[in-house]
Amino acid sequence: MIKLIATDMDGTLLDSNKNINPEFNKILNTLKEKEIIFAAISGRDLISLKHAFKDIKEDIIFASNNGNFIVYKDKVLFENYIEKEELNCILPTIRKNAKHFTIYCTKDGVYSESLFPLIAGLKFGLKVKFVKDITRINSNIIKISTFGKQKMINRSLNDLKPFEDRFMITPSGSTCFDICKVGGHKGQGIKILQDLYNIKFEETMVFGDHMNDIEMMDFAYFSHAMENAEKEVKERARFIAKTNDENGVIEAIKKHVLENYSYSYN
Protein backbone atom coordinates (compact mmCIF):
# COMPACT_ATOMS: atom_id res chain seq x y z
CA MET A 1 0.00 0.00 0.00
CA ILE A 2 1.35 3.41 -1.00
CA LYS A 3 1.66 5.87 1.91
CA LEU A 4 3.95 8.54 0.41
CA ILE A 5 4.00 10.07 -3.08
CA ALA A 6 6.71 12.57 -3.94
CA THR A 7 7.18 14.27 -7.29
CA ASP A 8 9.62 16.62 -8.94
CA MET A 9 8.10 19.70 -10.58
CA ASP A 10 9.71 21.00 -13.79
CA GLY A 11 9.62 18.36 -16.51
CA THR A 12 7.60 16.06 -14.26
CA LEU A 13 4.39 17.34 -12.65
CA LEU A 14 4.42 20.63 -14.57
CA ASP A 15 3.78 20.55 -18.31
CA SER A 16 6.02 22.36 -20.79
CA ASN A 17 4.11 25.59 -20.11
CA LYS A 18 4.84 25.27 -16.36
CA ASN A 19 1.20 24.49 -15.52
CA ILE A 20 -0.38 21.88 -13.24
CA ASN A 21 -3.31 19.99 -14.73
CA PRO A 22 -6.60 21.18 -13.13
CA GLU A 23 -7.46 17.56 -12.33
CA PHE A 24 -4.63 17.48 -9.82
CA ASN A 25 -6.70 19.21 -7.12
CA LYS A 26 -9.19 16.35 -7.22
CA ILE A 27 -6.36 13.80 -7.09
CA LEU A 28 -4.90 15.46 -3.99
CA ASN A 29 -8.26 15.46 -2.28
CA THR A 30 -8.61 11.72 -2.87
CA LEU A 31 -5.08 11.08 -1.60
CA LYS A 32 -5.93 12.99 1.56
CA GLU A 33 -9.05 10.87 2.08
CA LYS A 34 -6.88 7.76 1.79
CA GLU A 35 -4.32 9.27 4.22
CA ILE A 36 -1.59 9.20 1.58
CA ILE A 37 1.04 11.90 2.06
CA PHE A 38 1.91 14.03 -0.96
CA ALA A 39 5.20 15.93 -1.25
CA ALA A 40 6.49 18.27 -3.94
CA ILE A 41 10.27 17.81 -4.02
CA SER A 42 12.04 20.28 -6.26
CA GLY A 43 15.18 22.24 -6.93
CA ARG A 44 13.02 25.35 -6.67
CA ASP A 45 13.22 27.56 -3.60
CA LEU A 46 10.27 27.49 -1.18
CA ILE A 47 8.64 30.70 -2.44
CA SER A 48 8.72 29.55 -6.07
CA LEU A 49 7.50 26.08 -5.10
CA LYS A 50 4.54 27.44 -3.15
CA HIS A 51 3.71 29.78 -6.03
CA ALA A 52 3.41 26.81 -8.39
CA PHE A 53 0.65 25.44 -6.11
CA LYS A 54 -1.06 28.78 -5.45
CA ASP A 55 -4.41 27.45 -6.70
CA ILE A 56 -4.18 24.12 -4.89
CA LYS A 57 -6.13 23.91 -1.63
CA GLU A 58 -5.10 20.55 -0.20
CA ASP A 59 -2.22 19.90 2.21
CA ILE A 60 1.18 19.53 0.60
CA ILE A 61 4.65 18.96 2.00
CA PHE A 62 7.09 21.31 0.29
CA ALA A 63 10.58 19.80 -0.01
CA SER A 64 12.38 22.71 -1.66
CA ASN A 65 16.00 23.19 -2.73
CA ASN A 66 16.41 19.51 -3.70
CA GLY A 67 14.90 18.36 -0.40
CA ASN A 68 17.28 20.40 1.73
CA PHE A 69 14.52 22.58 3.19
CA ILE A 70 11.29 20.74 3.99
CA VAL A 71 8.18 22.52 5.27
CA TYR A 72 4.65 21.40 6.12
CA LYS A 73 2.03 23.98 7.08
CA ASP A 74 4.83 26.51 7.70
CA LYS A 75 6.53 24.16 10.15
CA VAL A 76 10.14 23.37 9.26
CA LEU A 77 10.64 19.59 9.19
CA PHE A 78 14.23 19.62 7.95
CA GLU A 79 16.93 22.16 7.09
CA ASN A 80 20.31 21.33 5.58
CA TYR A 81 22.46 24.39 4.91
CA ILE A 82 25.98 25.16 3.73
CA GLU A 83 28.18 26.30 6.63
CA LYS A 84 29.84 29.71 6.36
CA GLU A 85 33.37 28.31 6.18
CA GLU A 86 32.36 25.95 3.37
CA LEU A 87 30.69 28.80 1.52
CA ASN A 88 33.84 30.91 1.78
CA CYS A 89 35.83 27.99 0.42
CA ILE A 90 33.86 27.62 -2.81
CA LEU A 91 32.91 31.26 -3.46
CA PRO A 92 36.11 32.34 -5.29
CA THR A 93 35.57 29.64 -7.93
CA ILE A 94 31.91 30.53 -8.37
CA ARG A 95 32.65 34.25 -8.65
CA LYS A 96 35.45 33.65 -11.13
CA ASN A 97 33.32 31.58 -13.51
CA ALA A 98 29.71 32.58 -12.98
CA LYS A 99 29.21 35.56 -10.68
CA HIS A 100 26.57 37.07 -12.98
CA PHE A 101 24.71 33.78 -13.44
CA THR A 102 24.45 32.47 -9.89
CA ILE A 103 21.74 32.73 -7.25
CA TYR A 104 21.89 31.81 -3.56
CA CYS A 105 18.76 30.30 -2.00
CA THR A 106 17.86 30.67 1.68
CA LYS A 107 14.72 29.66 3.54
CA ASP A 108 13.27 33.16 3.20
CA GLY A 109 14.58 34.47 -0.12
CA VAL A 110 16.87 34.29 -3.13
CA TYR A 111 19.97 36.46 -3.52
CA SER A 112 22.58 37.28 -6.15
CA GLU A 113 25.79 39.30 -6.31
CA SER A 114 24.77 40.48 -9.80
CA LEU A 115 21.82 42.43 -11.17
CA PHE A 116 21.33 40.07 -14.11
CA PRO A 117 19.51 37.30 -12.14
CA LEU A 118 17.09 39.95 -10.82
CA ILE A 119 16.00 40.65 -14.38
CA ALA A 120 16.10 37.04 -15.56
CA GLY A 121 14.14 35.90 -12.52
CA LEU A 122 11.13 38.02 -13.45
CA LYS A 123 10.48 35.68 -16.39
CA PHE A 124 9.91 32.82 -13.94
CA GLY A 125 8.21 34.82 -11.20
CA LEU A 126 11.37 34.61 -9.08
CA LYS A 127 12.13 37.62 -6.89
CA VAL A 128 15.90 37.87 -6.50
CA LYS A 129 17.52 40.31 -4.09
CA PHE A 130 20.83 41.98 -4.93
CA VAL A 131 23.68 41.96 -2.40
CA LYS A 132 27.28 43.05 -2.89
CA ASP A 133 28.63 40.25 -0.73
CA ILE A 134 26.59 37.08 -0.15
CA THR A 135 28.59 36.25 2.98
CA ARG A 136 27.10 39.28 4.74
CA ILE A 137 23.46 38.17 4.69
CA ASN A 138 21.99 36.83 7.94
CA SER A 139 20.27 33.75 6.51
CA ASN A 140 21.98 30.42 5.86
CA ILE A 141 22.55 29.37 2.25
CA ILE A 142 20.65 26.16 1.50
CA LYS A 143 21.38 25.87 -2.22
CA ILE A 144 23.47 27.64 -4.87
CA SER A 145 22.24 27.55 -8.48
CA THR A 146 24.16 28.54 -11.60
CA PHE A 147 22.59 28.90 -15.03
CA GLY A 148 23.73 30.02 -18.47
CA LYS A 149 25.34 28.93 -21.71
CA GLN A 150 26.67 25.39 -21.97
CA LYS A 151 30.29 26.48 -22.39
CA MET A 152 30.20 28.45 -19.13
CA ILE A 153 28.39 25.62 -17.32
CA ASN A 154 30.96 23.07 -18.45
CA ARG A 155 33.86 25.31 -17.45
CA SER A 156 32.33 25.95 -14.04
CA LEU A 157 31.64 22.27 -13.39
CA ASN A 158 35.19 21.40 -14.36
CA ASP A 159 36.67 23.99 -12.00
CA LEU A 160 34.39 22.80 -9.19
CA LYS A 161 35.54 19.17 -9.37
CA PRO A 162 38.01 19.61 -6.47
CA PHE A 163 35.02 20.42 -4.24
CA GLU A 164 32.98 17.29 -5.03
CA ASP A 165 33.95 15.63 -1.76
CA ARG A 166 32.57 18.60 0.20
CA PHE A 167 29.49 19.56 -1.84
CA MET A 168 26.65 17.94 -3.76
CA ILE A 169 27.13 19.39 -7.28
CA THR A 170 24.37 18.22 -9.62
CA PRO A 171 23.06 19.25 -13.08
CA SER A 172 19.44 20.35 -12.60
CA GLY A 173 18.67 21.16 -16.24
CA SER A 174 20.35 21.28 -19.62
CA THR A 175 21.99 24.64 -18.81
CA CYS A 176 22.10 24.81 -15.02
CA PHE A 177 23.46 23.05 -11.96
CA ASP A 178 22.93 23.12 -8.19
CA ILE A 179 25.35 23.10 -5.28
CA CYS A 180 24.17 21.82 -1.88
CA LYS A 181 25.80 20.51 1.25
CA VAL A 182 27.45 17.15 0.64
CA GLY A 183 24.80 14.42 0.77
CA GLY A 184 22.09 17.03 0.25
CA HIS A 185 20.13 15.35 -2.53
CA LYS A 186 16.48 14.46 -3.07
CA GLY A 187 17.08 10.90 -1.90
CA GLN A 188 18.00 12.28 1.50
CA GLY A 189 14.79 14.32 1.47
CA ILE A 190 12.72 11.20 0.83
CA LYS A 191 14.51 9.34 3.64
CA ILE A 192 13.77 12.22 6.04
CA LEU A 193 10.05 11.97 5.24
CA GLN A 194 10.05 8.18 5.54
CA ASP A 195 11.64 8.39 8.97
CA LEU A 196 9.35 11.19 10.15
CA TYR A 197 6.15 9.40 9.15
CA ASN A 198 7.28 5.78 9.63
CA ILE A 199 6.92 4.93 5.94
CA LYS A 200 8.72 2.01 4.32
CA PHE A 201 10.69 1.84 1.06
CA GLU A 202 7.99 -0.33 -0.50
CA GLU A 203 5.27 2.16 0.54
CA THR A 204 6.87 5.05 -1.33
CA MET A 205 6.26 6.32 -4.89
CA VAL A 206 8.43 8.98 -6.57
CA PHE A 207 8.54 10.73 -9.95
CA GLY A 208 11.40 12.58 -11.65
CA ASP A 209 13.05 13.43 -14.94
CA HIS A 210 16.47 14.98 -14.46
CA MET A 211 19.84 14.23 -12.89
CA ASN A 212 18.97 15.89 -9.58
CA ASP A 213 16.19 13.28 -9.26
CA ILE A 214 18.42 10.25 -9.72
CA GLU A 215 19.24 9.58 -6.04
CA MET A 216 15.54 9.76 -5.22
CA MET A 217 14.97 6.64 -7.35
CA ASP A 218 16.95 4.57 -4.83
CA PHE A 219 14.65 5.43 -1.92
CA ALA A 220 11.32 4.18 -3.30
CA TYR A 221 10.25 0.83 -4.68
CA PHE A 222 7.74 2.59 -6.93
CA SER A 223 10.34 4.79 -8.60
CA HIS A 224 9.10 6.43 -11.82
CA ALA A 225 11.11 8.19 -14.50
CA MET A 226 9.09 10.27 -16.93
CA GLU A 227 9.13 9.22 -20.57
CA ASN A 228 10.86 12.56 -21.23
CA ALA A 229 13.49 11.87 -18.54
CA GLU A 230 17.25 11.71 -18.93
CA LYS A 231 18.57 8.29 -19.92
CA GLU A 232 20.39 7.84 -16.60
CA VAL A 233 17.20 8.51 -14.64
CA LYS A 234 15.27 5.95 -16.68
CA GLU A 235 17.97 3.38 -16.05
CA ARG A 236 17.79 3.96 -12.29
CA ALA A 237 13.96 3.89 -12.04
CA ARG A 238 11.82 0.74 -11.92
CA PHE A 239 8.90 2.18 -13.88
CA ILE A 240 8.33 4.67 -16.70
CA ALA A 241 5.46 7.20 -16.58
CA LYS A 242 4.06 9.07 -19.55
CA THR A 243 5.61 12.45 -20.39
CA ASN A 244 4.90 15.58 -18.37
CA ASP A 245 2.78 16.87 -21.28
CA GLU A 246 0.68 13.69 -21.12
CA ASN A 247 -0.05 14.10 -17.38
CA GLY A 248 2.25 11.20 -16.60
CA VAL A 249 2.25 11.73 -12.83
CA ILE A 250 -1.52 12.03 -12.59
CA GLU A 251 -2.14 9.04 -14.86
CA ALA A 252 0.24 6.83 -12.87
CA ILE A 253 -1.35 7.82 -9.56
CA LYS A 254 -4.85 7.20 -10.91
CA LYS A 255 -3.95 3.81 -12.34
CA HIS A 256 -1.67 2.42 -9.70
CA VAL A 257 -2.92 4.02 -6.48
CA LEU A 258 -6.51 5.18 -6.88
CA GLU A 259 -7.89 2.34 -8.99
CA ASN A 260 -6.80 -0.45 -6.63
CA TYR A 261 -4.17 -1.65 -9.06
CA SER A 262 -1.33 -3.63 -7.48
CA TYR A 263 2.24 -3.86 -8.74
CA SER A 264 3.96 -7.20 -8.84
CA TYR A 265 7.15 -7.22 -6.79
CA ASN A 266 10.32 -8.52 -8.46
Automatic annotation (TrEMBL):
<dbReference type="Pfam" id="PF08282">
    <property type="entry name" value="Hydrolase_3"/>
</dbReference>
<dbReference type="InterPro" id="IPR023214">
    <property type="entry name" value="HAD_sf"/>
</dbReference>
<dbReference type="InterPro" id="IPR000150">
    <property type="entry name" value="Cof"/>
</dbReference>
<protein>
    <submittedName>
        <fullName>HAD family phosphatase</fullName>
    </submittedName>
</protein>
<dbReference type="InterPro" id="IPR006379">
    <property type="entry name" value="HAD-SF_hydro_IIB"/>
</dbReference>
<dbReference type="InterPro" id="IPR036412">
    <property type="entry name" value="HAD-like_sf"/>
</dbReference>
